[in-house]
C-alpha cells in the first residue's frame, strides 16, 4: 500500500503461484483520499498452458452509479461493458487483503448491503450484483507466531465465513466453512 500526494492510496497485490498451479495474478487498486475505490486492474498470467483457463486482463473504473469494465481474454480484442450500481453498493474485490475493509464497511451500513463481486475467472460476467450479510461478533484473540493480538471477529453470510481483523482492517485469520478452508497470517509488520 502506497500513500500518494493528496491522501489517495495505491495498492498492489501479486500472487505468484508458478510453483503450485502455474498461475500468477497481479492486481492494483486506486482509492481516493476518502477511501472510495476509483479503479481496480487485474491480470491473470499462465506460466503453463491450461485447458480450463486463458490469460486475461480486466480494468474496472468505479463511478457514482455504475462501473465501466474493459476486458481482454487471451488474444481476443478488448471488450467493454457497464454495470449499473445501486446506491450504497460495496465492491467485493477477490483478494484476501481487501476482505477486512469490506466486512467493516458492511457492518457500518447495518450488516447488509448490495455488493458488486468481481469474477476472477475471466469468464462472463466480469462481475455481478448480489447481497452480502455481516455481523460484528466482538473482540477475540489471535496468535501470530509468538504474538497474541486482540482482533475484532466478523461473521459473513450467516457464519459461512469468519474473519478476525486488526485495527487496520487486515485479516489476521479467516475460516471458510462452506469450503472447509482456514487461512492464518503468519508474519505481519505494520509501519508507523
Summarize this entry quickly.
By secondary structure, this protein is mainly beta. It is built from 1 helix and 14 strands.
What fraction strand? over 45%
CA gyration radius, whole angstroms: 17 Å
Number of helices: 1
Number of strands: 14
Pick out the low-confidence regions: none
In what order do the strands lie side by side in the largest sheet? Answer: 1-2-3-4-5-6-7
The run of helices and strands is: EEEEEEEEHEEEEEE
> What integer is the average pLDDT?
85
Form type: globular
Describe this structure in words.
This protein is mostly beta strands. Helix content is 5%, strand content 54%. The protein contains one helix and 14 strands, in the order E-E-E-E-E-E-E-E-H-E-E-E-E-E-E. Strands 1-2-3-4-5-6-7 form a seven-stranded antiparallel β-sheet, with no helix packed on it. A seven-stranded mixed β-sheet has the order 8-9-10-11-12-13-14. Strand 6 and strand 7 form a beta hairpin. The longest helix has 10 residues, at 99-108. The two termini are 13 Å apart. The model has no long low-confidence stretch (mean pLDDT 85).
Amino acid at each position: 500500500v502506497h500513500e500518494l500526494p493528496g491522501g489517495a492510496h495505491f495498492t498492489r497485490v501479486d500472487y505468484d503461484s508458478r510453483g503450485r498451479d502455474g498461475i500468477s495474478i497481479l492486481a492494483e487498486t486506486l482509492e481516493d483520499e476518502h477511501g472510495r475505490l476509483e479503479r481496480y486492474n487485474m491480470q491473470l498470467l499462465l506460466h503453463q498452458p491450461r485447458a480450463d483457463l486463458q490469460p486475461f486482463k480486466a480494468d474496472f473504473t468505479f463511478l457514482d452509479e455504475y462501473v465501466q469494465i474493459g476486458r481482454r481474454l487471451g488474444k481476443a480484442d478488448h471488450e467493454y461493458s457497464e454495470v449499473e450500481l445501486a446506491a450504497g453498493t460495496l465492491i467485493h474485490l477477490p483478494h484476501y487483503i481487501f476482505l477486512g475493509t469490506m466486512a467493516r464497511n458492511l457492518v457500518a451500513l447495518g450488516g447488509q448491503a448490495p455488493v458488486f463481486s468481481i469474477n476472477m475467472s475471466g469468464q462472463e460476467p466480469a462481475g455481478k450484483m448480489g447481497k452480502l450479510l455481516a455481523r460484528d461478533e466482538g473482540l477475540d484473540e489471535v496468535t501470530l507466531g509468538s504474538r497474541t493480538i486482540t482482533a475484532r471477529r466478523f461473521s459473513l453470510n450467516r457464519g459461512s465465513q469468519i474473519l478476525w481483523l486488526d485495527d487496520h482492517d487486515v485479516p489476521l485469520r479467516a475460516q471458510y466453512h462452506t469450503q472447509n478452508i482456514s487461512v492464518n497470517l503468519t508474519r505481519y509488520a505494520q509501519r508507523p
